[in-house]
Amino acid sequence: MASILEPSALFSQVATDTLYVTALVASVWGVAAAFKKKKTQPDVWKVHGKYYDLTKFLDKHPGGSAFLEIAKNTDITALFESHHVHDADRIRETILPKYEITEPEAMAKGWIPIEGAPEWDFSKGGFFKETQKGVAEALPKSILSKHDWWYDSFILFAAVLSWFAVYNVFFNPSYKAFWYTVTFFSRVTVVSGAGHYYLHSGESWREIFWDFYSPMSSWVWKYEHCISHHIHTSTQYDLQMSGPRQIRKFPGTPNPIRVFLLFGVSPFLTYLKNFGTFVETGAPLKYYLYKVPMFVEFIIAYRAGMVVPYAIFIALAAIYSILFLFCSHQLPEQQLAVSAKLLNEKHLTTAPYIKDNLKVHPRDWGLHQMMTSKDFYVTGNYTFDNFIMIIAHNQVAHHFFPIFNPLHYEVVEEVISKQLKKFNLPHEYIEKRSFVGCVPELVSSLCHHTLEDFHEIFTGAAA
């Protein structure tokens, strides 16, 4: 273990190491860019059944080019509707027609494997579109970035607190490793939540919050989380929820080993896979440089003789992420039960759900989000839960409209509740469950089930 340096010596050493790391990261990008595959077909974006060539619009897009670049050659209707709450119809009528093209003979292969994926319904007057209209009226567009300062201030405070823990400032030196781990883990909960929010809210320098927290790049997470997971949540086309299927491939494996594979091995294999995707998909240089702070954090831990606590911190963060992801989404057998209860039939492929002369299309995207996402609480205290889990209390609202700050999700939930009553849908979808109570059920489900069950739900046929 490295010897502990004085603050001034540590700062000098870390500054030097940072320059080396930055140069190395930039060099990796240069090599990856040199081997980037050349396009053989024009890029196409599909919205509401029509095709557009948005190549010339990439640099004009107010939310930045990353989302469009990553989602090219796919159907981006759900992404478009959920991220343009206030002006989706206006953009569809006035801007998109400028880039419309005839249907291509064959779309170039997108990064996200969604061949055969269901086309979600966004009919005017439907459950999702009515909810979107209500939220747009309740939350004006001007509030979207109103609370950025709150995240900035708290993350700075948490970072300083972590530094104090390293040098025993205000902390008992006998418990240095303990305080280091606790303060870093406290910071990571906030940074991950803030970074998660900024991944959805367009390109900005604040995306670095995610890269500061996670070994996975914000560029890749836009691809797997924002575009794959948020559109086809908990289906076989959801890349982020594919872990259980891999574990299922080990028939006869005792449950304790499956749990170890999920929480001990899977995160690090995922990190390696994400790095491959990061390079293969040609991420811009800035997304490579966003990873520098995390390398610097490791350097600080190493120079301060805190490698073991840092490793514990990374392991806890990985386990925390997996628990959060799977506890906040319906698992296969839960999904089957919910869909059967809602539609009183096995599959969602027949007639629309009709009750008291109100119709909800079985592929209404809002209905899909209601059935696959679930809210939970950690302590039952809203403020504390939003500190620890950021969006734990409001996972359903987040899946409907991820561009909103968690401070606004209560308003979104109120609108959703009104629409549930209007369409006579069960209000239980936004009833909160205990996070602690979910964990045993989660582990048991992941040991015995696979996401391939979803194929039957959405297509009516076995995978």
Automatic annotation (TrEMBL):
Keywords: Heme, Iron, Membrane, Metal-binding, Transmembrane, Transmembrane helix
Gene3D superfamilies (UniProt xref): Cytochrome b5-like heme/steroid binding domain (3.10.120.10)
Bilayer-crossing regions: 149-171, 177-199, 259-279, 299-326
Cytochrome b5 heme-binding domain mapped to chain residues: 47-105
Gene Ontology MF: a single term: heme binding
InterPro entries linked to this entry: Cyt_B5-like_heme/steroid-bd, Cyt_B5-like_heme/steroid_sf, Cyt_B5_heme-BS, Cytochrome_b5-related
Domain of life: Eukaryota
PANTHER family: CYTOCHROME B5-RELATED PROTEIN-RELATED (PTHR16740)
Annotated family: Belongs to the cytochrome b5 family.
Entry protein name: Cytochrome b5 heme-binding domain-containing protein
Organism from which the protein derives: Cymbomonas tetramitiformis
